[in-house]
Design brief:
Blueprint: H1 15-20, E1 31-38, E2 44-46, E3 54-57, H2 58-70, E4 75-81, H3 98-109, E5 114-119, E6 132-134, E7 137-139, H4 141-157, E8 161-164, H5 171-181, E9 190-195, H6 202-208, H7 228-240, E10 244-248, H8 254-263, E11 268-272, H9 274-285, H10 291-305, E12 309-312, H11 315-321
Parallel strand pairs: 1-3, 1-4, 1-12, 4-5, 5-8, 9-10, 10-11, 11-12
Antiparallel strand pairs: 2-3, 6-7
This protein binds ligand PBG.
Ligand PBG binds next to α6.
């Protein structure tokens, strides 16, 4: 049976009919808003490669968190830019580090907002890698202890969820164990499971001041050519106790989002990363695309592909369009 019996255009004839058969609807609850927190007071420093994003001191971060919450955004994820870096990343697990302070301040002033913390060492290490470095190599097992300490310090500060992004093997086990041993068995782990070694992170590295001083991240982040390996990574993380698995970046990796969604029964998050955001901003600035329409199309497509949660710098702008 085909034309003229079937005419798919019948269901596209006007706004009402289209709205009745629409399969994907974005909601404010879909979004997680990433924020960069830094030391100092009254700091609101523009990130040149990410228009609309800022490095914020804790007092300013509280204001933006309040604003996001008022718009209906349920959660933020915090990244820290510490005053000092060293080769042990000690600021990452300092109880009075920037992220720990920001978590306390936001939970105090905006208790209804879920505060998620990114658990990684690259922003805190003098060499900018996500683990301990020895003879030019990024060591896996010794790094786990530091990541676990960092996650615990975030939980102690009041974080609602922790999100390891380092791509060391076994970090979910390490974090789950330390949280459980300290009475934080109810704190979920959102694991960056399929995190690719992507060129789309470069604006973030300016924002977070975390560019590696030598080499790259290809010995720990995934090869963009690999699809089946993403399933393996997600399976391992779920076995280790991850409550939510993430795919990152998002736009070039919708096949991965879809595969993981079809394979597992845990919520899937997609990270619409800095480079994806910056490209939209840059093209819009040149007048080459309609920023709002392109933004909404991208975010809708991520949800259509299978994302239950979307981490995006567009979150605040996007909820205003709903
Ligand atoms: C830290 C981390 C990165 C991002 C999130 N967590 C950077 C990296 O791996 O180099 C990227 C986020 C973005 O580009 O928006 N490991």
């Amino acid at each position: 049976m085909s034309f003229p019996i079937h005419r798919p255009r019948r269901l596209r004839i006007n706004t009402v009919i289209r709205s009745m058969v629409r399969e994907t609807h974005l909601m404010p609850e879909d979004f997680i808003y990433p924020m960069f927190v830094t030391f100092g007071k009254g700091v609101r420093k523009k990130i040149s490669t990410m228009p609309g994003c800022f490095q914020l001191s804790v007092d300013e971060a509280v204001k933006d968190a309040q604003y996001a919450y008022k718009l209906g955004i349920p959660a933020v994820i915090l990244f820290g830019i510490p005053a000092h870096k060293n080769n042990k990343g000690t600021e990452a697990y300092n109880p009075n580090g920037v992220v720990q302070k920001a978590v306390r301040a936001i939970k105090d002033r905006v208790p209804g907002l879920a505060v998620i913390t990114d658990v990684c060492l690259c922003e805190y290490m003098s060499h900018g890698h996500c683990g301990i470095v020895k003879n030019g190599e990024i060591l896996n097992d010794p790094t786990l202890e530091l990541l676990a300490k960092e996650a615990l310090s975030h939980a102690k500060a009041g974080a609602d969820m922790v999100a390891p992004s380092d791509m060391m093997d076994g970090r979910v086990t390490a974090i789950r164990s330390i949280l459980d041993a300290n009475g934080f068995d109810d704190i979920p782990i959102m694991s960056y499971s399929a995190k690719y070694a992507s060129a789309f992170y470069s604006p973030f590295r300016e924002a977070a001041e975390s560019t590696p001083s030598f080499g790259d991240r290809r010995s720990y982040q995934m090869d963009p050519s690999n699809r089946r390996e993403a399933i393996k990574e997600a399976a391992l993380d779920i076995e280790e106790g991850a409550d939510i698995v993430m795919v990152k970046p998002a736009m070039c990796y919708m096949d991965i989002i879809s595969d993981i969604k079809d394979t597992f029964d845990v919520p899937v998050a997609a990270y619409n990363v800095s480079g994806e955001y910056s490209m939209v901003k840059a093209a819009a600035k040149l007048g080459w695309i309609d920023e709002k329409k392109v933004m909404m199309e991208i975010l809708t497509s991520l949800k259509r592909a299978g994302a239950d949660l979307i981490l995006t710098y567009h979150a605040v702008d996007a909820v205003k369009e709903l």
